[in-house]
Amino acid sequence: MKHFLTTLPLLLLLSTLLLTPQTPVIPDTRAGRTLQAWLDAFNSGDRGRLQAYLEKYDPAKSVDSELGFRNQTGGFELLSIDKSDPLSIEFQVKEKAGPTKAVGKIQVKDADPAVVVGFRLRAIPPGMAAADMSLKIDAATRARVIDEAVAKLNEYYVFPETAKKMAEAVQAKLKSGAYDAITDADDFAARLTDDLRAVSNDKHLGGIFQRSDTERIH
């Protein structure tokens, strides 16, 4: 009986450890350190810490916009690290203020500090899993998306000459094979956004991947 009583606390401790969710370990890479810095600053809800993070890692973003997003979500709990490379990291998080989960990806420069060159965070719709958020695309899809983008630019963009230059730029890149290695829909949308903005200098212009019953990039 004495032996049983002395081992019982140990069994209870082991049971508690097994049942307690473990915080994912963020890899010690440039991308991983940037992810950790973002989570620390974002979750703090402190304007000064967010401002310091943005100035160092992501100067294109507005501190007011980030604070508004922080207040909306309550911050994020890191659920998992799904893929990690030295300059890129994919992850899942959950809002602290609600049940919403999201998939994210950060891409950084090979420099110190590792400045963000790509950041995406997309909520997982009800009834869908993180795996459902990824869409692989082929050459035919890339060509179709560019044709549709060019048509919309020519029809709706307020500066026709700029629209023509943007269309010529992305069509030339497609023809040269510059997009051949891109098979992820989100990555393709981000690359198109960069290429269109490089011509127009219009930060309001961009493409996003939207997954629904009919998957598309627009």
Describe the structure in your own words.
This protein is an alpha+beta fold and 218 residues long. The protein folds into two domains: 22-133, Nuclear Transport Factor 2, Chain: A, CATH 3.10.450; 139-217, no CATH class. The protein has helices at 2-19, 30-44, 47-57, 63-73, 139-156, 160-176, 185-200, and strands spanning 76-85, 88-95, 101-108, 116-123, 209-210, 216-217. The strands form two sheets. Strands 1-2-3-4 form a four-stranded antiparallel sheet, covered by helices on one side. It has a two-stranded antiparallel sheet with strand order 5-6. The longest helix has 18 residues, at 2-19. The model is unreliable at 10-18 and 213-218 (pLDDT under 50).
User: How many discrete domains?
Assistant: 2
Portion of residues in beta strands equals: 15-25%
Q: How many helices?
A: 7
Listing every helix as H and every strand as E from the N terminus to the C terminus, the arrangement reads HHHHEEEEHHHEE
> Would you tell me which CATH topology of the largest domain applies?
Nuclear Transport Factor 2, Chain: A
Radius of gyration, in Å, reads 22 Å
Number of strands: 6
Q: Just name the CATH architecture of the largest domain.
A: Roll
Average pLDDT reading:
87
How is the main sheet built? Answer: 4 strands, antiparallel
N-to-C terminal Cα separation, in Å? 70 Å
Q: Report the oligomer.
A: single chain
Helix content: 40-55%
Q: What is the approximate shape?
A: globular
> By helix and strand content, what is the structural category?
alpha+beta
Q: State the name of the first-level CATH class of the largest domain.
A: Alpha Beta
Uncertain spans, ≥5 residues at pLDDT below 50?
10-18, 213-218
- Strand adjacency order, main sheet: 1-2-3-4
